[in-house]
Specification:
The chain is mainly α. Helix 3 packs parallel to helix 7, helix 4 packs across helix 6 and helix 4 packs antiparallel against helix 9.
Length: about 280
C-alpha cells in the first residue's frame, strides 16, 4: 500500500492555503458594464438572425406595401393618405419589434435558453436591449422602402422623410419592450405568439386606418397604443408647415413608453431567469 502525503491531497492543499499566513487573496474581475455588454449581445443577435434577414424584410415590407395599394382606392383626402402611409411604415416596425420579439423570447424561455444568458456576466438590461436593438435594426430598410413607395403612390412630399431617423428607434423601443415583456411573461410560447400577433394586428388596424373614420371607443384604444404616436409624428411632417412642437411631443411619448416598457421587459427577464 502506498501512502500519499496529506499536503498533496485537494482537501489538504485547500487547508494549507486557507491557513497559511500572508497568503494572497484572489480578487474578482471587474463587473461587466452595460454598454459593452449591450454591444456584445447586439452583435451576437444580429449574426444569429442574419440568415433570416432577407425573408423577414420581404414579408414585412410586402405586407405594408400591399396594404397601401389596397387603401389607394379608399382614401379620399390628403390627411387620410398621410395616415395610411405613416401607419404602413410603422407597421413594419411593429411586425418585427413586437410580433417576432415576443415569439423569440417566448421560445427562449420555453427551451431553457435563458439559462445560457443567466450564466453570462452581463447585466439583464443588456440582454433585453441588445436583442431589441438587433431585431429593430432589420426594420430600417423595409420602413424606408415602404415610406418612399407610399409617398410616390399617394403623391406626398419626400422632403421630411429624415424624421424616420427618430421614429424608427423610438417607436421600435416602445414596441420592442412590449414584445419582449409578452414573450417573457407568457407561461407558454404559444401564448407569447398569440400576444405578439394580437399586438401587431392592433398596430395594423389602429395605425393604418384613418382615425376620423373610427368610432370613439376605437379612437380611445388607438391612443393607448404606443406606436400611434410614432404614426402621428410621421404623418404630421407631410404638411406644408408641420407643427414641430407637436411632432416632438409625440416622439417624447414614444420615448417615455419605450423607457417604461423596456424596464418592464428587464424585470420580466430577471423574473424568468431565476425560475
Amino acid at each position: 500500500m502506498s501512502v500519499v502525503p496529506a499536503e498533496v491531497l485537494p482537501g489538504g492543499a485547500l487547508a494549507v492555503e486557507e491557513t497559511a499566513p500572508g497568503a494572497p487573496v484572489a480578487e474578482l474581475g471587474p463587473r461587466a458594464r452595460l454598454w459593452p455588454s449591450l454591444v456584445a449581445v447586439y452583435r451576437a443577435q444580429l449574426s444569429r438572425a442574419r440568415v433570416a434577414r432577407i425573408p423577414l424584410l420581404f414579408v414585412a415590407t410586402f405586407q405594408s406595401v400591399g396594404i397601401m395599394i389596397m387603401m389607394r382606392g379608399v382614401v379620399d383626402s390628403r390627411s387620410e393618405a398621410q395616415s395610411v402611409v405613416a401607419g404602413s411604415a410603422v407597421v413594419v416596425v411593429a411586425y418585427v419589434a413586437l410580433n417576432l420579439l415576443a415569439q423569440y423570447f417566448g421560445q427562449l424561455r420555453a427551451s431553457g435558453g435563458l439559462d445560457h444568458y443567466a450564466t453570462l456576466p452581463v447585466p439583464p438590461a443588456s440582454v433585453v436591449l441588445g436583442a431589441a436593438a438587433a431585431y429593430a435594426s432589420f426594420t430600417v430598410p423595409g420602413t424606408l422602402v415602404t415610406a418612399v413607395f407610399g409617398c410616390v403612390l399617394f403623391g406626398l412630399p419626400l422632403a421630411n422623410l429624415w424624421i424616420l431617423v427618430a421614429v424608427i428607434p423610438l417607436a421600435g423601443a416602445a414596441l420592442a419592450g412590449l414584445g419582449a415583456a409578452c414573450g417573457l411573461l407568457a407561461p407558454r410560447p404559444e401564448i407569447a405568439t398569440l400576444l405578439g400577433q394580437l399586438g401587431m394586428s392592433a398596430a395594423l388596424l389602429l395605425g393604418v386606418l384613418p382615425p376620423d373614420r373610427m368610432p370613439g371607443i376605437i379612437q380611445f384604444a388607438r391612443d393607448l397604443l404606443p406606436s400611434t404616436y410614432g404614426v402621428e409624428a410621421f404623418a404630421r411632417t407631410f404638411g406644408a408647415q408641420p407643427d414641430w412642437a407637436v411632432v416632438l411631443a409625440d416622439l417624447g411619448v414614444c420615448a417615455g413608453v419605450g423607457v417604461v416598457s423596456l424596464a418592464v421587459a428587464t424585470w420580466a427577464y430577471r423574473r424568468a431567469a431565476v425560475r
